[in-house]
UniProtKB/TrEMBL annotation:
Record bears the keyword Nucleotide-binding: no
Organism domain of life: Bacteria
Any Pfam family the entry gives: DPRP
Region annotation (Disordered) ranges: 1-36
Keyword Lyase: yes
Keywords in alphabetical order: Lyase
InterPro entries registered for this protein in UniProt: Crypto/Photolyase_FAD-like_sf, PhrB-like, Rossmann-like_a/b/a_fold, UV-DNA_repair_photolyase
Compositional bias segments (type: Basic and acidic residues): 1-15
Organism of this sequence: Paenacidovorax caeni
Name recorded for this polypeptide: Deoxyribodipyrimidine photolyase-related protein
GO molecular function: lyase activity
Amino acid sequence: MSNDLRGEQRLDPVKRAVTLTSDGTDPRATEHGMNATATPAPVHTLRLVLGDQLHRGHSWFTQVDRQVVYVLMEVRQETDYVLHHAQKILVIFAAMRDFARQLRAAGHRVRYVALDDASNRQSIGNNLSALAAHYGARRVEWQQPDEWRLDAQLQAWGAAQALEWAVVDSEHFLTARGELAALMGQRKQWLMEHFYRHMRRRWRLLLDANGAPAGGQWNFDHDNRKRWPGTPPEPADWRPQHDHSALWRTVQRSGVQSFGNPQAADLRWPLNRSEALACLEAFIATALPHFGDYEDALAAQAPRLFHSLLSFALNVKMLHPLEVVQRAEAAWRAGQAPLAAVEGFVRQIVGWREYVRGIYWAHMPGYASRNALHQHTPLPQWFWSGDTHMRCLHLAITQSLQTAHAHHIQRLMVIGNFALLSGLEPQALHRWYLGIYIDAFEWVELPNTLGMSQRADGGLIATKPYVSSAAYLQRMGDYCQGCAYDPKQKTGTRACPFNALYWDFFERHAPVLQGNPRLTLVYRQLHKMPEMQREALRAHADQLRDRLATL
Ligand code: FAD
Ligand code: SF4
């Protein structure tokens, strides 16, 4: 696998077979529609670029070959497989358009199928078939898709074709699809920490000269659990702003359904590698030094805190994970950020991110339907409005609807925590997470939601359920201040729902969870409670579950 990041620089202008016009565009790059009668210039290969494969450094783009046409397409298949946040649809299409523009400017031939093109068949396979016929292409190539759904679709499409086809590496990840499974072998639990150390050694990250972990330990997580006191201030939002109103009109005219806020003021995602690199630099300079300390904090007035907001740029491959973590390590070596912060950040990217991808490929397609705790309650309607009296959920969901982003603790310990405690169906929750977040692609979203957050995989990822009562949420921030509920009360009309639901969750699932050594203390505490108290908690939890819609 090549991880050469210098693709852009390696483009040799001498090898370009075309002359660019003064505005940087190539008039011959405007390809005809699939139904056009004009015969296109001869083509031997079509290369499909998916919306999350905007990897300018990929070796495909190092040389210009005018017998190759790069195909990008905006299709209803991709807008409609789940109900998406408006920003996700807009930003992916806008970034694809920008990528097509860059390829054309570099001399490549590009066929861009816009959402409202008359010839658009709205499915990747049907468009590919039509384009292959239109160009008389002998061969079609695509990069390994990250999602099982697309991988299966393209394989099936290829198998039905008479022409040659080939799949190439996306040259993005630091591990091959099956590598985690090979490393973990027959182990019952695939511990992330084990994998993470392997990755640190393999990519020589944060190591001393003798190969030991920098600072004498692999993991500084225990330093990273502080409540944010209000200072240092949350850095100003460094992300670019774009006006996508014309594209939004096209999306609406085409009848695509969506939810969430499409307004420019909150729509601040990079559209290309240059913008993504600027975001990376701004994060390193202003937020990384405090990333570790406040990684788990919750703050009503500081929705981004010191998080990087780089997940979108990483997942659509504008940035390479190695360059991001190496940049963070360089900041530590230059004395610009503490080791605990840099280690925490590196662990998320070379540890968790690669690890969940390995889980996904090792266990799909069956993984998507797992529901080990047999939870079946539909999501309350307020997941689509934020309209709940529980302030923590109101804040986290409203922010998600407004900005298509929530940080990890909001996703895990606010929304996911409540979903697991109240018995929501993991698959319905998965569809919600997949639709709402700007960075949500199934390979990363599904293991996080079903595995880490909902324990629907029976504990493959998480050594214990990520649940808490109100005490944790109160400790980690200011969400409880001004809430209609009281975090200290366990039963009664003003009692915080997290409290009774928390104890009831452990009671209900005792047959599967009680034997877990990491839960010994929880069960000891539960068993010490007087039966009357347990009964009151049970009754209150039942009542809460009966009126989830009005909580
Ligand atoms: P930061 O806090 O700045 O972290 C840095 C980077 O580390 C992120 O950009 C991301 O690439 C990586 N990272 C951090 N945690 C994880 C993780 N658990 N798994 C994989 N990568 C991680 N992340 C997604 O990219 N897409 C998703 O669809 C997604 N769904 C999630 C669903 C649930 C229920 C949970 C609990 C987590 C989910 N995550 C997902 C992981 C994490 O919440 C986001 O990556 C993070 O909030 C993105 O914001 P950031 O870029 O500011 O991250
Ligand atoms: Fe959330 Fe309970 Fe705190 Fe309200 S009191 S913000 S519901 S944890």
